[in-house]
Amino acid sequence: MESVSHLVKVSVPNYLAGLPIPDSIGGWFRLGLRDWISLVPPTALVAGIGYMSYRSFCPLGRPAPSTKINPKIKKDVNKVVDTLDVENITEKVAFCRCWRSENWPYCDGAHGKHNQETGDNVGPVVVTKNK
């Protein structure tokens, strides 16, 4: 713990005090090559912290939501309608509501990936048979 204390109280302040940071705008133009090189590590550290902070609040790579809800199920018909007889349900069945299931109309858990990619919270409709 003493080494951390020494790092925070002595080493880092001494390092920062030794950086060639000018007092005026014109001073930046008078810095030599060695001065500019000594400013690279702290600049990279500040840029990295800024970038990681930005990424945590503004995630990149999130796909834009599609305007179509149904990406692939029965695209050859005008309206997708499925009829299931309640008598054929065993004890419990989960029906897909995200339109991404490979086992349509039954849920196969594809909503998990969909929710992660889009920030949505859709889940299946679970129907249970009364005994």
Tell me which oligomeric state these chains represent: single chain
Q: What structural category characterises the helix and strand content?
A: mainly alpha
Task: Using the alpha-carbon principal axes, give the shape.
Answer: elongated
Helix proportion: 40-55%
Low-confidence stretches: none
- H-E string: HHHEHE
Strand content: 5-15%
Work out the number of β strands.
2
Give the C-alpha Rg.
29 Å
- Continuous helix count: 4
Q: What number is the mean pLDDT?
A: 86
Largest sheet entry: 2 strands, antiparallel
Could you characterize the architecture of this molecule?
The protein has 131 residues and is mainly alpha-helical. Helix content is 42%, strand content 6%. The protein has 4 helices and 2 strands, in the order H-H-H-E-H-E. The chain has a two-stranded antiparallel sheet with strand order 1-2. The protein is elongated. It starts with a helix and ends with a strand. The mean pLDDT is 86.
Keywords:
131 residues; mainly alpha; two-stranded antiparallel ribbon
Topology, element by element:
Elements: H1 2-17, H2 25-29, H3 33-57, E1 92-95, H4 110-118, E2 125-128
Antiparallel strand pairs: 1-2
Summarize the structure.
With 131 residues, this protein is mainly alpha-helical. 42% of the residues lie in helices and 6% in strands.
